[in-house]
Amino acid sequence: MTLQTAERPRLAPTAQVPRTGRKERDRVSRWQIWVPLSLYLLFTLVPFYWMLVFAFRPRGSTSLLPWPITFENFETVWNDLSFALFFKNSLMVGIASLVMTTVVALAGGYALARYEFRGKRLFMIGMLCTQFIPGAMMLIPLFEIFRALGLVNSLWSLVIAETVFQLPLSLILISGFIKNVPVELEQAAWVDGCTRLRGFFAVVLPLLRPALVAVGSFAFIHSWNNFLFALMFVSEQEKFTVPVGLSYTLGEFSVDFGALAAGGVVAAVPVVLVFAVIQRYLVQGLSAGAVKG
Amino acid sequence: MAITTADLPVRRRPGRAARTPYLLIAPAVIAMLGFLVYPMASVLYYSLQHYNVTKPWDNGFAGLDNFRRLLFEDPLFWQSLGFSVKWVGVEVFLQLLFGLALALIVNETFVGRGLARAMVFSPWAVSGVLTTGIWVLLYNPTTGVSRYLADLGLMQYGAAPLANPDTVFWAAVLTELWRGVPFFAILLLADLQSISKELYEAASVDGASRRRRFIHITLPHLKDAIILSTLLRCVWEFNNVDLLYTLTGGGPAHATTTLPLYVAAKAVQSHDFGYGSALTTAAFLILTFFSIAYLRLSKFGATT
Fold this sequence. Notes:
The complex is a heterodimer.
Chain A: H1 2-5, H2 11-16, H3 30-56, H4 72-80, H5 83-114, H6 120-130, H7 139-148, H8 155-180, H9 183-191, H10 196-207, H11 209-225, H12 228-233, H13 242-251, H14 257-288
Helix pairs in contact in A: 3-14, 4-14, 5-8, 5-11, 8-11, 9-10, 11-14, 13-14
Chain B: H1 14-47, E1 49-50, E2 60-61, H2 65-72, H3 75-107, H4 113-121, H5 128-139, H6 145-151, H7 168-192, H8 197-205, H9 210-239, H10 242-247, H11 259-269, H12 273-297
Antiparallel strand pairs in B: 1-2
Helix pairs in contact in B: 1-12, 3-7, 3-9, 3-11, 5-7, 7-9, 9-12, 11-12
C-alpha cells in the first residue's frame, strides 16, 4: 500500500496548467469525488472490517472493536482445522500453475507475436472459443481424464486444470505485449551475433516484466482461489486447499464464527500480499495487453 | 551460452525456421487439445448417450432423447435458465454502471488517489468462497449487521436475508457486486488512461462542457473496452458457480439455482452423466450464440 502514495507525484503541477483557462463548470468539485467515493469505500471496507473483528475478538464477545485482541481463533483454525496443511497445498498449487502458465504462454505468445504461420488464425479463434466453455461443466470429462492418468486426489490435477483454463487469456496478454516491443531491438541483437533465443532473453524478456507480473499473479490468484476443481478432483483431507477447508468451516462449524473469520483472514493474506506488489503493474499491464489485443 | 556459427539464423536450413512457431505453440496446443477440446468433445458425445452410473442396464445410444427431455419435460431446466438470465442481466448491468462511475472517479487527480484505488479494487482478488464467508457473517441474524442496526433501533431483530426467498436474490446480487464492480473499474480505468490528454484540452478550448467531452470523447473511446468486458463478464457470471454454491446452495427451494448449478446437481449428485452432458451442451450453445450475436450487434472493433 505504501507503494501507492508515491505514485506519480509530479502529475499535480502539470494538471493545473490547462485548468487556469477553464470555466467554472469544467471543474470536478471535490464533493463530486469524495461523496460517492466514501460511500463506495464504506461498502467495500465494512465486510473486510467485519471479518477482522470476528477473527481477532474473543469468543462470545459482541464488541464492534476487536479488543482485547486474541489469537485463539487462529490457533483453532491453524492447528485443529489443519489450515497449515491446506495453506501449504494451496501455495504449492499456486506456484506450480504460475510457473507453468507463464512458461507456456511466453513460448506461445512469442510465436503469435513474431511469426506468421499456417493455422495461426485457427488457433486464435480456437482460443477465443475456449472462453465460452463453462469450466463448471467440464468437471465430468476432466474427472475421467484425471482418473485415467491416475491424477485424481493429486494436486497435479489442480495445477493442470488451472493452467489450461488460464492459458488463453495469458497467451493473448503476453503476445499483445511482445508485439509492443519493437522488432528492431531484437534484430539489433541478432546483428550483434545473438541467437534468436539469446536475443529474446537479453532484449525482450526484461521489457516484459509488467506483463509477466500481471499474467503470473493472475494465475496464482486464480488457482489460490479456485474452489470447484479443488472440491471435485481432490477428496483426501490431506490434499485440501484453503478454499475447500474454508467451505467446510462454512458448513460443519457454522456456529463458530470466530473460526470462519480467522480462516477467511488466512485465505486472504497471500492474495493481499500479491495484490500489494502488483498494484503498480496491474493497470499498465491490462491497458497494454488485454484491451488492445 | 557459447555462440557458435551454427546458431546464427542465417546459417539455418530453410525448413527449420518454419518449424519454430509450431514448436513454440505446441505445449499450449497440446494442453488445450487434451484438457479443453477433448473433454468438450466427450461432453457432446455423452449428450447423445443414455449414461447413468446408477442405471447401467439402460445405457447406450440415445439420439436426441436427452435434448427432447430437456426441452419438453424438465421445468427445472427452464427455471434455472430463467434465473441465470436474470442473474447475469442484473449483475452485469449494475457492475458496469458502478464500475464506470468508479473508474471515472479514481481517474481524477486527488490526494490519496493511490490508496483509494488499492482499497476500491481489493475485493476483486477475493475468492468466491471467502466472499461467501464474509457475507454469511454479515447476513447472519445474530452476528450480522442487522443485529447491530436492530440494537440501535433501526431494524427489526431476526432478519435473515439468505433464508428468505423474497430477499435471497438481492442478497446474492449485493454480494457478487461487492467483488464484481472492481473488475469493471480496473479494466475501464486502464482504458481511460490511454486517452490522450490533448483531446480533452482541445475540446475544452473549443468550449465543450464536461458532459459533452464525456459523451463525444470518453464514451466512444471506451466503447470497445465496455463491449469486451461486458461480454466476458456475462460469460463468467453465467458460468460462475462457487459463490452461489456456497452462499445459498441454489436454495431456498431452487430460488437461486443457475443452470450450471443445476447441471452440477444432475451430473454429480444423481450421476446422470448423459443428461448432464445434454444440459452442458445446451448451456454452451446458448453462450456461443449469445456471444456471436452480441459481437455482431455491437459492431465490436468497428470504431476508428
